Amino acid sequence: MSKIPLQTSAPSHSRLHRLLAPRSIVFIGGKIAEMALTRCREAGFKGELYMVHPSKKTVGGVPCYPSIEALPVVPDAAYVGVNRSATIEVVRSLAALGAGGCVCYAAGFAEVGGEGIELQQQLIEAADAMPLVGPNCFGFINYVDQLALWPYVFGGRPVDRGVALISQSGNVAMNLTMNERSVQFTHVICAGNQAVLGPADYLEALLEDSRVRAIGMLLEGLDDLAAFARMAQRALERGIPIVVMKIGRTLAGAERASSHTSSLVGSDTLYDALFERLGIIRVDSLNCLLETLKLFDVAPLIKGTDIVTLSCSGGEAGILADLCDTYGLTTPPFSATQTQSLVAMFPGYVTVSNPFDYNTSIWGDKAGMERCFTTSLSGTHHAALLVYDHPTIDAPEVAEWIDCLEAFIAAHAATGMPAFLACTVSELIPEALRTRLIEAGVVPLQGLDDALFSIAAAGRYHTHRQAQLATPLPKFADDAPVGSAGTFLDEWESKQRLSAAGLTVPSGQLVARPGVGIAACEIGFPVALKACGSAFIHKSELAAVHIGLTSASDVEAAADAIMKAAAARGLQATQFIVESMATPTVAELIVGIHRDPQFGPTLVIGSGGILVELVGDSVSLLLPTDRAAVDQALSRLKVATLIKGFRGRPEGDRAAAIDAILAIAAFACAHWGTIQELDVNPLIVLPKGYGIIAVDALLRFSEPQ
User: Fold this and answer.
1) E strands of 143-211, at which residues?
2) How high is the pLDDT of residue 6?
3) From CA 632, how far away is CA 569, in angstroms rounded?
């Protein structure tokens, strides 16, 4: 008689549903398997439990079967708690049986290198089409369906809905479950080595679950960028925010290549670009991850970043003013009506402004605080924030703090404005008060920095979501693998190619030494003179460029100087570019293409000139891109201030600069499979109406051009 798998609790299109929400679970192994069985029971699992052990009759009151083949049913899920060698055969047997999926606890696979890499490949082959979590992982916890395939202790409690967490670190995930921040987890998944299942697979499954309000991720990296991007786009479509803490920001960096562009780009920079493109919120701390997830779970829709802040301390108001600016929140003043009403409530020494220090003149007056808060929340701001730290001592005066809290709750109920309460010291809001606030629709946030970051992130997420949905998904390196390291085109060839693609370059000629003076006269003074050839990629470092030359004799003398400097370095300067000077200059940009092994060709925009690496003012964009994204990226650069017209200087031709950047992006997309590097530095921005000029350029392709 063939074994029939027990049916899962609810229909789902996800191939992971049997594994993540099983009706039957088998635990295989000794101590670790027994620990996982205990945790599963403690989580409240009500389904069928089985154990496989070669010699024991029972474990924890659960009958043991000597082998997987001896099980009376096909299990929905399995916890494999045996050593790495035995794991492979156990997984093979589970896959042959038709199990819904498994968790592999054992370490010693690809993470250790050498033999472990081969063992992991054998594990992948053994799993075949069966979903497999790990190896080298704790497993997962499902709080909504009340089960755990996880051996160690964990925190949290059963919930009806909340936020999910995908983590590449089991220990960090375990610690996050024990948070004292009222974060309600629906699922905590430890991904481990991701031999079979990766972040995209978990995202797909979680997005099928209507009980998941937001998804947090602790990542070290992504193997399948295209699959991740598709799932992130789906999350954006469904309005499920993704909040990521990616490990490795300070360690990331690009191997220096021949262009300035490559020195500005590291893989972490490109992850930033990816997350921004996909509407993913990146955080830099675990506390911020938790607070941002909590906000998305509990808070109503925030339609922007204008907020009103309330505190009874001038010091707190000053801190808020600084932090709001840091995190991109704005604090518009109260309306005239609000101001008039508030002024009437206070003594003359209280200044009515936003941020609002309502002072202590109404402290202890619950009705007065309620009138103040209600008036403050009755305007057009997108959200309100009250600073509140609860005393840790037991004294009669503590009742005044409770009055303040209740007054703010009443103001929120009366106005409907999204309301947040933030403590300056993260532990100064106890669980009972957090619960009271959440039940009343007010979001308790712990720590001012994390509070303001999360509010700003939510406001931007909701206001930018539609624009991000309209942007096409980026391409990645796997779409067009690259062959050899390639060859450089010299500056003259590079400029000719870019000129044909729509970029304006200086008028000039490519000549040998005897023709430099004649060429300069034909072009018209002043001119620039440069050595040209594959040996002269960084001309300024080789004294191979002279600018501002005003006569034929100056040009000829400059050519002799270049040849002498080159000879001193064992080089020969035989070809020269003579070209007109670009004046007047409003600003200098660098625009380049950097090829990343994962991301493929990516666009870099930054402050240009000889100090490009020192200034480090750059933004990376994934391709393809559009005008709105380029315009926004340009606004983020310090050099944008110069383009606007700085201290009486003329305004630059921003529209022409964007046109040029888009032309470079289009050129890269047209040569997606072969372009390795592109460097336009500087791209001179001329006064408005006069366009731009690409003064220097470098191109490298993987195939002869």
Assistant:
1) 147-149, 162-167, 185-190
2) 43
3) 44
Asked whether 605 and 539 are in contact (CB, 8 A), the reply is no
Do 582 and 684 touch, CB atoms closer than 8 A?
A: yes
693 has a pLDDT exceeding 50: yes
Cis ω on the peptide bond leading into residue 506 (within 30° of 0)? no
Alpha-helix residue ranges (DSSP H) falling in 254-361: 260-264, 267-277, 286-298, 314-326, 336-345
Bridging pattern class, strands 675-685 and 587-596: antiparallel
Angle value at C-alpha 542, between 667 and 683, nearest 5 degrees: 30
What are the tokens at 290? 């938790």
Average pLDDT value for the chain? 92
Rounded CA gap, 88 and 82, in Å?
10
3-state percent helix, strand, coil for the chain, nearest multiple of 5: 40, 20, 40
- 33-49: pLDDT as tens digits: 999 999 999 999 999 99
Q: Three-class SS of residue 80?
A: strand
What are the tens digits of pLDDT across the range 445-458?
Answer: 999 999 999 999 99
Both tokens assigned to 430: 């106890």
CATH 3.30.1490.20, domain 507-580, yes or no? yes
Report d(CA 679, CA 159) in Å as an integer. Answer: 53
Q: What would the pLDDT profile of 593-619 be if each residue is shown by its tens digit?
A: 999 888 999 999 999 876 666 667 899
Is residue 664 within a helix (H) or strand (E), and if so which, with residue range? helix 654-670
Fold observed for domain 17-295:
Rossmann fold (3.40.50)
Q: What is the C-alpha to C-alpha distance for residues 51 and 96, in angstroms, rounded to an integer?
A: 18
Tokens of residue 496, six digits: 């000719």
Domain boundaries, the chain: 17-295, 300-469, 507-580, 587-701
Residues 630, 632, 633, CA angle at the centre, nearest 5°? Answer: 65
CA 321 to mean position of chain CA atoms = 26
Domain 300-469 in the same topology as domain 17-295: yes
Q: Which amino acid is at 320?
A: L
The DSSP code for 485 is -
Say what the pLDDT of residue 266 is.
56
**How many C-beta atoms surround the C-beta of residue 510 within 10 A?**
18
Among the four given CATH numbers 3.40.605.10, 3.30.470.20, 3.40.50.1000, 3.30.720.120, the one describing domain 587-701: 3.30.470.20
**229 contacts 449 by C-beta, under 8 angstroms:** no
CA distance 523 to 582: 13
Q: How far is CA 31 from CA 52, 79, 453, 492, in A?
A: 12, 12, 43, 70
Check if the beta carbon of residue 372 is closer than 8 Å to that of residue 345: yes
- Quote the CA–CA distance of 273 and 532 in Å, as a whole number: 35
- Residue showing tokens 């929340």: 377
